Amino acid sequence: MTKEQRYQGYTAIEFDRPAERVLRLTLNNPERMNSLDARGHAELAEVWRDIDTDPQVSAVVIRGAGRAFSAGGDFDMLDEINNDFKARARVWREARDLVYNIINCSKPIVSAIHGPAVGAGLVAALLADISIAARSARIVDGHTKLGVAAGDHAAIVWPLLCGMAKAKYHLMLCEPVNGERAEALGLVSLCVDDAELQDKALEVAQRLADSAPGAMRWTKYALNNWLRQAGPIFDASLALEFMGFGSPEAKEGVLALREKRVARFDPDLAV
């Protein structure tokens, strides 16, 4: 399989090879702030398997086109999840695969985060082995604002990165953080000026690609056992998130976002 053939079926992700043995992924829907439709969500989950078996790749950069890293799932996909059980089950499986495929991808991953980083895009940004944020980055886990539990990656990686107290504060209140604050919390590896972001991410990826490949991949594998041992925590959080979709809370949360207003949740629906 040639370099071009391996990734030719992808439509939501653009690929280039900016340096020897470095593959760069660009979430490429800038008109919609790189929000992910059903196809984009599936591609972001699956691509890490292709990268893992690509003999021409030793390191990866993931970034977003335009003024955002990713605005998360688009409204059409959220409506489909809320109203169609088969769609909910499909996206649950993709959300599970996205996390585990990134964790199990043997190649080191660098994320270059600028502007809004939300939803499935944020999963890739924070589960990257080295995460670099621009000062303009706006990182927010918005699950509870949507009316669902903070699933995806949040329950396993946020407490590990920034501690339980800060994780609960930001996940329960959907409190955003910029690049500088994210670095101070330990949520990202590094914060740089916006103009330096892409060059710095590529520089780090080149250093990883030039390193001893076995040592690099085995170090990643060993460290990611911290995440693997939290697998039951992740599985429970994801199940609770998707149990919430289709509920009155989730439907009100999505509607409020569409109408750009504060959600009005019914306190008597709590279980």
UniProtKB/TrEMBL annotation:
Q: Which Gene3D superfamilies does the annotation name?
A: 2-enoyl-CoA Hydratase, Chain A, domain 1, Lyase 2-enoyl-coa Hydratase, Chain A, domain 2
State the InterPro entries in the record. Answer: ClpP/crotonase-like_dom_sf, Enoyl-CoA_hyd/isom_CS, Enoyl-CoA_hydra/iso, Enoyl-CoA_hydra_C
NCBIfam families the UniProt entry points to: PRK07327.1
What Enzyme Commission number(s) apply to this enzyme? 4.1.3.36, 4.2.1.17
Q: What protein name applies here?
A: Enoyl-CoA hydratase
Question: Which PROSITE patterns does this chain map to?
Answer: ENOYL_COA_HYDRATASE
Q: What's this protein's family per the entry?
A: Belongs to the enoyl-CoA hydratase/isomerase family.
Q: Which UniProt keywords apply?
A: Lyase
Q: Name one Pfam family in it.
A: ECH_1
- Which organism does this sequence originate in? Bordetella trematum
- What's a Gene Ontology MF term here? 1,4-dihydroxy-2-naphthoyl-CoA synthase activity
